[in-house]
């Protein structure tokens, strides 16, 4: 199963992706982790990314897509994968769709974890306090959520138009949310 998890910061994507990885027995591919690994490994794309980041710029969609193509072409993705953190905009969604079709691994599902904004603010602020991060105050979190909503709304619509989007209530205990996600993927995946 090839799956992309969508959701605002604090929606629980990373937590649910880790659980789904074990349940579905497919790799969890986080673009942030992938980028750090490629830079650390000194790969051609990793070196390009390192140079871009050293200039204080964002890594281009082309570099990220190249890293993703390499990653999803590995043997451990034969039965699928879970993408977390990508695509973040419509350009990335289009490029990812074209890549996956070209390599014969089209996306099966896009699952959006739906969490009300005020709860997201509470979650992130609580996490920031626990980690001692002063930059995650409620106002800066709300601003980041506005940017996320502006950029990601077209991605959500992209997957809705392709008949791949499933919206799951992301509020509740971890097990409740996990069971909702797995049920949304049925009949492909049974709750275990």
TrEMBL record:
User: Could you tell me the keywords of this UniProt record?
Assistant: ATP-binding, Cytoplasm, Kinase, Nucleotide biosynthesis, Nucleotide-binding, Transferase
Might you give the EC number(s) for this enzyme?
A: 2.7.4.3
What GO biological process, any one, is recorded here?
AMP salvage
- Check the record and name the CDD domains matching this protein: ADK
Q: Entry's Gene3D superfamilies?
A: P-loop containing nucleotide triphosphate hydrolases (3.40.50.300)
Q: Quote the record's binding site residues for AMP.
A: 31, 36, 57-59, 85-88, 92, 133, 144
> In terms of domain of life, where is this protein from?
Bacteria
Pathway per the UniProt entry: Purine metabolism; AMP biosynthesis via salvage pathway; AMP from ADP: step 1/1
PROSITE patterns in the record: ADENYLATE_KINASE
Give the region (NMP) as residue ranges: 30-59
Q: GO molecular-function annotation terms? A: AMP kinase activity; ATP binding
Question: Which positions in this protein are listed as binding ATP?
Answer: 10-15, 127, 172
SUPFAM superfamilies from the UniProt entry: P-loop containing nucleoside triphosphate hydrolases (SSF52540)
| Reactions catalysed, as given in the entry | AMP + ATP = 2 ADP
One GO cellular component term of this record is: cytoplasm
The UniProt subunit note reads as follows: Monomer.
Q: What does this protein do?
A: Catalyzes the reversible transfer of the terminal phosphate group between ATP and AMP. Plays an important role in cellular energy homeostasis and in adenine nucleotide metabolism.
Q: Name the PANTHER family for this protein.
A: NUCLEOTIDE KINASE
- State the family named in the UniProt similarity comment for this chain: Belongs to the adenylate kinase family.
HAMAP family noted in UniProt: Adenylate_kinase_Adk
Identification of the protein by name: Adenylate kinase
Q: Which organism is it from?
A: Aerolutibacter ruishenii
Q: What is the lineage of its organism?
A: Bacteria, Pseudomonadati, Pseudomonadota, Gammaproteobacteria, Lysobacterales
Q: Which gene encodes it?
A: adk
